[in-house]
Specification:
296 residues; alpha/beta; Rossmann fold; 2 domains; 10 strands; globular
Amino acid sequence: MPNCLSKAPLQPLTLPWLHTAGIEAAILRLDLIDPLISGNKWFKLRHHLDQAHAAGALGLISLGGNHSNHLHALAAAGKRFGFRTAGLLRGHPQDTPTVRDLQALGMELHWLGYGAYRSRHEPGFWAPWQARYPGWHCIPEGGGGLAGAKGCALIVEQAQAQLPTLGWPDFDAWWLAAGTGTTLAGLVLAEAGRRAVHGALAVPMDHGVPQAVAELAGAHGYQLHDACRGGFAKLDDELLAFIDTTEQQTGVPLEALYTGKALMALRDQVQAGLFVPGTRLVFVHTGGLQGRRGYL
């Protein structure tokens, strides 16, 4: 499957709290690679799309919520690359901007309720859907699994290639939001111990991300930080004020569920002294800006 999307620009990230701590940072703008197949979702889908194409699959099936960035990217990729798509959604039918986009992009929607959605990791979950859509390619929630993680190796390559534009010979560590842990695991695999990878958990620790990352990438080369602020999709006035101020200071749009929480967690760790002065960090903007419509 050809990569016909734009490369993500690597831009200086200048913020007062970084300057005070003597930290240099840059932001990898995955949100700018495509208007619809945006952010880390494209990288996680790359190998899944290759596998579907090689198998001659007629369509793609995956799971997500009613504001899902993953399903939004999948529906757009299906339309662009000639696959039919079906989405298995958490909960009961709702009318959201994301759901309307999914329908406009031709995705068939199935609302599973909450109990059936919780069974998505159980053996046999996919059997009835494979019977309903024979020959279609099934993709784990969020584009997860080893195929999704390996697709994220290109994120490392894109950042590495642009270091000369910053005047950096190298950098020390990555910082990014973690929802399923797939992108984090992909960076760990690609780095193979060269640079530290820091994941800001946008979901509670008991949602299985530590286990998922360990299964995909082993137990070393990364560190997880709590950034969920009380739960997945939990927003508060302090977080929203931080995002508003940061957008004014940088001109970079953020969304609250992932990139906003991750950047706020980075600020807290920088101010707590996690990094020594002179450290160079790359912060990954994982996209997901379409999801802002769900809470603005």
